[in-house]
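[[Sequence with tokens]]
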Amino acid sequence: MRADQLLVERGMAASRSQAVRLIAGGMRWFDGIKWRSVAKNKDDIPVDAKIELLDDAEARYVSRGGLKLDAALKHAALNVDGLKVLDVGQSTGGFTDCLLQAGAVQVIGVDVGHGQLHPKLREDARVLCVEGLNARSLTPESLQEACEYVLSEQWEAPAEDDPEPVAPYAWMNSGGEVTDYDDSDDADDAEVEAHVAQAAGKMNARAASSSSSSDTPASARAELRRKAGFDDVDTEPEFDLITGDVSFISLTLILPALVPLLAENGVLLMLVKPQFELQPGQVGKGGIVRDDAMYPLVQARLRECCAELELEVLDWFDSPVAGGDGNREFFIYAKRLG
């Protein structure tokens, strides 16, 4: 089996791309006599072979983002133990995985995409994944509503059937033979026709009612109820810490929506990708920022944005782990004032 595929099969890597990076960090397998080094991702290794990674740091989290945040938390001396966190741009969940391993009690993640979060995190009771939600348009109300939707299911009261008549065949006995039947009270033809007309009117009224209700929002015809086992999940849109790793949008467009979600004295720790903070003409070929003079411009722009939002910038520092595309990345660490 291919070396990268074997790592995934053994659960030693969350994805093939992560396996590639692990192999680059050093991998070997035992052939029964000696250890053999793995030179390429496609090297063939026996399925039942004993294998070792020489550097397994890459495998600590479900994605490389976890390594970035882990290093940033240490640099900022930020203890997240017991904190409630919002993870913006959750994606595969590298930041979320790091936060949970560092002791966060709950992580609510939002992402504009769908189906990206790693299964182990999606199944974790401490994680609430809200998909298809653009962080730029977040409000406390819309976030809480989206969280409740994820945790709930539609419930409608069962229809009440007409009650069964009491002993409907009491007038029958002797194996179904009718005896002593008195037809003196039977309806005449005029009464039957009047009854049929009345019934038709009721049916038309019900049809009209059904037609008008089809235009009524589902939320008005049914109510949302929490799914079993989720009664105690906290969806209050107030967070001790907000982290984020977003692409193709400037943080200056997202931060205004995040500040109202911070608890008093809450903090932000956001990954900054300069290529998305600059104008197209300021970014080099392939989306790489090659001019070091651009980095101070990015920092100044974000500091100005924070000042306008009453955020105190506590630190600005290089991401200890480089971006996968070769771009230099930073973290901004800020605190809500008041």
